Amino acid sequence: MRASLIQLAVTEDETPDARRSRAAALVLDQHGSDLVVLPELWPVGAFAFDRFAAEAEPLDGPTAAAMSTAAHRAGVWLHTGSIVERAPDGALYNTSLLFSPEGQLAARYRKIHRFGFDRGEAVLMSAGTTPVTAALPETVLGLATCYDLRFPEVFRALTDAGAQTVVIPAGWPERRRDHWTLLARARAVENQCHVLACGTAGTHAGVPQAGHSIVVDPWGEVLAEAGHGEEILTVDLDPERVARVREEFPVLRDRVLGR
To answer: Looking at the whole model, is its pTM more than 0.85?
Structure first.
Protein backbone atom coordinates (compact mmCIF):
# COMPACT_ATOMS: atom_id res chain seq x y z
CA MET A 1 0.00 0.00 0.00
CA ARG A 2 1.47 3.33 -1.04
CA ALA A 3 0.75 6.28 1.25
CA SER A 4 1.57 9.94 0.66
CA LEU A 5 1.62 12.53 3.44
CA ILE A 6 1.34 16.13 2.21
CA GLN A 7 3.08 18.35 4.76
CA LEU A 8 1.32 21.48 3.54
CA ALA A 9 2.65 24.94 4.39
CA VAL A 10 0.07 27.20 6.00
CA THR A 11 0.90 30.90 5.83
CA GLU A 12 -1.13 34.01 6.51
CA ASP A 13 -0.52 35.50 3.05
CA GLU A 14 -2.49 32.71 1.31
CA THR A 15 -6.28 32.72 1.38
CA PRO A 16 -8.22 29.57 2.32
CA ASP A 17 -9.62 29.40 -1.23
CA ALA A 18 -6.14 29.60 -2.75
CA ARG A 19 -4.88 26.96 -0.33
CA ARG A 20 -7.78 24.65 -1.18
CA SER A 21 -6.91 24.91 -4.85
CA ARG A 22 -3.24 24.27 -4.16
CA ALA A 23 -3.97 21.31 -1.87
CA ALA A 24 -6.25 19.78 -4.53
CA ALA A 25 -3.49 20.09 -7.12
CA LEU A 26 -1.02 18.39 -4.77
CA VAL A 27 -3.48 15.54 -4.20
CA LEU A 28 -3.82 15.08 -7.96
CA ASP A 29 -0.05 14.74 -8.18
CA GLN A 30 -0.28 11.65 -5.90
CA HIS A 31 -2.44 9.64 -8.32
CA GLY A 32 -0.11 6.63 -7.99
CA SER A 33 -0.76 6.36 -4.25
CA ASP A 34 -3.47 4.37 -2.51
CA LEU A 35 -3.88 6.74 0.45
CA VAL A 36 -3.16 10.47 0.67
CA VAL A 37 -3.16 12.42 3.95
CA LEU A 38 -3.35 16.17 4.64
CA PRO A 39 -2.67 17.98 7.95
CA GLU A 40 -4.97 19.34 10.65
CA LEU A 41 -7.03 22.50 10.01
CA TRP A 42 -4.94 23.48 6.99
CA PRO A 43 -7.68 25.65 5.41
CA VAL A 44 -7.50 28.13 8.29
CA GLY A 45 -4.49 27.23 10.49
CA ALA A 46 -4.60 25.24 13.71
CA PHE A 47 -3.78 28.27 15.88
CA ALA A 48 -5.84 30.90 14.03
CA PHE A 49 -8.49 30.79 16.75
CA ASP A 50 -9.94 34.19 15.87
CA ARG A 51 -10.86 32.89 12.39
CA PHE A 52 -12.45 29.59 13.35
CA ALA A 53 -16.02 30.88 13.37
CA ALA A 54 -15.66 32.84 10.13
CA GLU A 55 -14.05 29.92 8.27
CA ALA A 56 -16.29 27.18 9.69
CA GLU A 57 -18.08 25.14 7.04
CA PRO A 58 -20.63 22.32 6.84
CA LEU A 59 -19.74 18.80 5.77
CA ASP A 60 -20.71 19.68 2.20
CA GLY A 61 -18.78 22.96 2.26
CA PRO A 62 -16.00 24.16 -0.06
CA THR A 63 -13.20 22.05 1.43
CA ALA A 64 -15.22 18.84 1.27
CA ALA A 65 -16.29 19.61 -2.28
CA ALA A 66 -12.74 20.30 -3.46
CA MET A 67 -11.31 17.24 -1.70
CA SER A 68 -14.06 14.92 -2.92
CA THR A 69 -13.33 15.97 -6.48
CA ALA A 70 -9.56 15.61 -5.97
CA ALA A 71 -9.94 12.12 -4.47
CA HIS A 72 -12.09 11.02 -7.40
CA ARG A 73 -9.85 12.51 -10.06
CA ALA A 74 -6.70 11.05 -8.48
CA GLY A 75 -8.35 7.71 -7.73
CA VAL A 76 -7.09 7.68 -4.13
CA TRP A 77 -8.39 7.32 -0.62
CA LEU A 78 -8.03 10.85 0.75
CA HIS A 79 -7.84 11.74 4.41
CA THR A 80 -8.44 15.47 4.23
CA GLY A 81 -6.72 16.34 7.50
CA SER A 82 -9.39 18.36 9.27
CA ILE A 83 -11.67 21.34 8.90
CA VAL A 84 -13.58 23.60 11.27
CA GLU A 85 -16.99 21.99 10.91
CA ARG A 86 -20.13 23.95 11.71
CA ALA A 87 -22.79 21.46 12.73
CA PRO A 88 -26.48 22.08 12.01
CA ASP A 89 -26.98 23.24 15.62
CA GLY A 90 -24.19 25.83 15.22
CA ALA A 91 -21.55 23.99 17.26
CA LEU A 92 -18.00 23.91 15.92
CA TYR A 93 -15.93 20.72 15.67
CA ASN A 94 -12.41 19.87 14.54
CA THR A 95 -13.51 17.28 11.99
CA SER A 96 -11.58 14.90 9.75
CA LEU A 97 -13.11 13.59 6.52
CA LEU A 98 -12.11 10.47 4.60
CA PHE A 99 -13.09 10.21 0.93
CA SER A 100 -13.06 7.07 -1.19
CA PRO A 101 -11.49 6.91 -4.67
CA GLU A 102 -14.99 7.49 -6.00
CA GLY A 103 -15.16 10.77 -4.11
CA GLN A 104 -17.70 9.49 -1.58
CA LEU A 105 -17.50 10.43 2.09
CA ALA A 106 -16.42 7.19 3.77
CA ALA A 107 -15.82 8.35 7.36
CA ARG A 108 -16.00 11.39 9.60
CA TYR A 109 -14.12 11.85 12.87
CA ARG A 110 -14.66 14.70 15.32
CA LYS A 111 -11.54 15.31 17.42
CA ILE A 112 -12.08 14.05 20.95
CA HIS A 113 -9.31 15.89 22.81
CA ARG A 114 -9.27 19.65 22.24
CA PHE A 115 -6.05 21.53 22.90
CA GLY A 116 -5.73 24.83 24.72
CA PHE A 117 -6.04 24.46 28.50
CA ASP A 118 -9.24 26.55 28.74
CA ARG A 119 -8.34 28.71 25.75
CA GLY A 120 -8.52 28.50 21.97
CA GLU A 121 -9.77 25.21 20.56
CA ALA A 122 -10.63 23.92 24.03
CA VAL A 123 -13.35 26.55 24.48
CA LEU A 124 -14.28 27.37 20.88
CA MET A 125 -14.97 23.82 19.70
CA SER A 126 -17.13 21.00 20.92
CA ALA A 127 -15.61 17.58 21.59
CA GLY A 128 -16.18 14.46 19.60
CA THR A 129 -17.16 11.39 21.58
CA THR A 130 -16.56 8.37 19.37
CA PRO A 131 -13.37 6.71 18.05
CA VAL A 132 -13.67 6.02 14.32
CA THR A 133 -12.22 3.34 12.05
CA ALA A 134 -12.65 2.78 8.32
CA ALA A 135 -12.00 -0.34 6.27
CA LEU A 136 -9.82 0.16 3.19
CA PRO A 137 -9.01 -2.65 0.76
CA GLU A 138 -5.59 -3.31 2.32
CA THR A 139 -5.89 -2.08 5.91
CA VAL A 140 -8.23 -0.79 8.59
CA LEU A 141 -7.62 2.88 9.35
CA GLY A 142 -7.98 4.38 12.79
CA LEU A 143 -8.57 8.14 12.86
CA ALA A 144 -7.06 10.48 15.45
CA THR A 145 -6.06 14.15 15.41
CA CYS A 146 -3.07 16.05 16.85
CA TYR A 147 -3.61 16.41 20.64
CA ASP A 148 -5.22 12.94 20.68
CA LEU A 149 -1.66 11.67 20.28
CA ARG A 150 -1.05 12.35 23.98
CA PHE A 151 -3.89 10.06 25.08
CA PRO A 152 -2.99 6.38 24.61
CA GLU A 153 -6.50 5.22 25.50
CA VAL A 154 -7.74 6.57 22.16
CA PHE A 155 -5.31 4.33 20.32
CA ARG A 156 -6.19 1.31 22.46
CA ALA A 157 -9.82 1.85 21.51
CA LEU A 158 -8.88 2.04 17.83
CA THR A 159 -6.80 -1.13 18.14
CA ASP A 160 -9.70 -2.91 19.82
CA ALA A 161 -11.89 -1.79 16.91
CA GLY A 162 -9.52 -3.46 14.45
CA ALA A 163 -7.23 -0.60 13.39
CA GLN A 164 -4.00 -1.67 11.72
CA THR A 165 -2.94 1.79 10.51
CA VAL A 166 -3.56 5.02 12.40
CA VAL A 167 -3.65 8.38 10.63
CA ILE A 168 -2.89 11.48 12.71
CA PRO A 169 -3.13 14.89 11.03
CA ALA A 170 -1.74 17.68 13.17
CA GLY A 171 -0.80 21.31 13.53
CA TRP A 172 1.97 20.57 16.04
CA PRO A 173 4.13 23.46 17.33
CA GLU A 174 7.86 23.49 16.65
CA ARG A 175 8.68 24.02 20.32
CA ARG A 176 7.32 20.54 21.16
CA ARG A 177 8.62 18.72 18.09
CA ASP A 178 10.49 16.10 20.13
CA HIS A 179 7.21 15.06 21.75
CA TRP A 180 5.62 14.68 18.31
CA THR A 181 8.09 12.11 17.03
CA LEU A 182 8.43 10.37 20.40
CA LEU A 183 4.69 9.91 20.83
CA ALA A 184 4.15 8.81 17.23
CA ARG A 185 6.68 6.02 17.74
CA ALA A 186 5.22 5.12 21.14
CA ARG A 187 1.70 4.76 19.73
CA ALA A 188 3.04 2.52 16.94
CA VAL A 189 5.00 0.30 19.32
CA GLU A 190 2.35 -0.11 22.01
CA ASN A 191 -0.41 -0.89 19.48
CA GLN A 192 1.76 -2.72 16.94
CA CYS A 193 0.36 -0.69 14.07
CA HIS A 194 1.53 1.64 11.34
CA VAL A 195 1.34 5.31 12.30
CA LEU A 196 1.03 8.00 9.62
CA ALA A 197 1.45 11.36 11.35
CA CYS A 198 1.06 14.33 9.00
CA GLY A 199 1.92 17.80 10.26
CA THR A 200 2.01 21.26 8.74
CA ALA A 201 4.83 23.56 7.76
CA GLY A 202 4.77 27.34 8.04
CA THR A 203 3.44 29.51 10.86
CA HIS A 204 -0.14 29.59 12.18
CA ALA A 205 -1.08 32.87 13.84
CA GLY A 206 2.50 33.43 14.96
CA VAL A 207 3.08 29.82 16.06
CA PRO A 208 5.88 28.11 14.08
CA GLN A 209 4.95 24.58 13.07
CA ALA A 210 7.05 21.49 13.67
CA GLY A 211 6.71 19.87 10.27
CA HIS A 212 8.52 16.53 10.57
CA SER A 213 5.66 14.36 9.37
CA ILE A 214 6.58 10.79 10.16
CA VAL A 215 5.69 7.23 9.16
CA VAL A 216 6.38 4.53 11.75
CA ASP A 217 6.02 0.78 11.37
CA PRO A 218 4.55 -1.62 13.99
CA TRP A 219 7.98 -2.30 15.48
CA GLY A 220 8.62 1.42 15.99
CA GLU A 221 11.00 1.83 13.07
CA VAL A 222 10.82 5.17 11.30
CA LEU A 223 10.16 4.48 7.62
CA ALA A 224 10.25 8.15 6.58
CA GLU A 225 10.41 11.57 8.20
CA ALA A 226 10.02 14.99 6.62
CA GLY A 227 11.98 18.10 7.39
CA HIS A 228 10.70 21.49 8.49
CA GLY A 229 9.29 22.94 5.24
CA GLU A 230 6.55 21.93 2.83
CA GLU A 231 7.24 18.38 1.71
CA ILE A 232 5.53 15.21 0.53
CA LEU A 233 6.46 11.84 2.01
CA THR A 234 5.59 8.79 -0.07
CA VAL A 235 6.08 5.40 1.54
CA ASP A 236 5.26 1.84 0.51
CA LEU A 237 3.74 0.00 3.46
CA ASP A 238 3.48 -3.76 3.84
CA PRO A 239 -0.07 -4.39 5.13
CA GLU A 240 0.99 -7.85 6.37
CA ARG A 241 3.67 -6.35 8.62
CA VAL A 242 1.11 -5.63 11.35
CA ALA A 243 -0.12 -9.22 11.52
CA ARG A 244 3.44 -10.58 11.52
CA VAL A 245 4.59 -8.33 14.37
CA ARG A 246 1.49 -9.10 16.42
CA GLU A 247 2.00 -12.83 15.89
CA GLU A 248 5.76 -12.89 16.53
CA PHE A 249 5.58 -10.63 19.61
CA PRO A 250 2.01 -11.08 20.91
CA VAL A 251 2.08 -8.43 23.62
CA LEU A 252 -1.51 -7.32 23.00
CA ARG A 253 -2.91 -10.64 24.16
CA ASP A 254 -1.30 -10.14 27.59
CA ARG A 255 -3.30 -7.02 28.40
CA VAL A 256 -5.01 -7.21 31.78
CA LEU A 257 -6.51 -3.76 32.32
CA GLY A 258 -8.97 -2.12 29.92
CA ARG A 259 -10.19 -5.27 28.21
So the answer is: yes
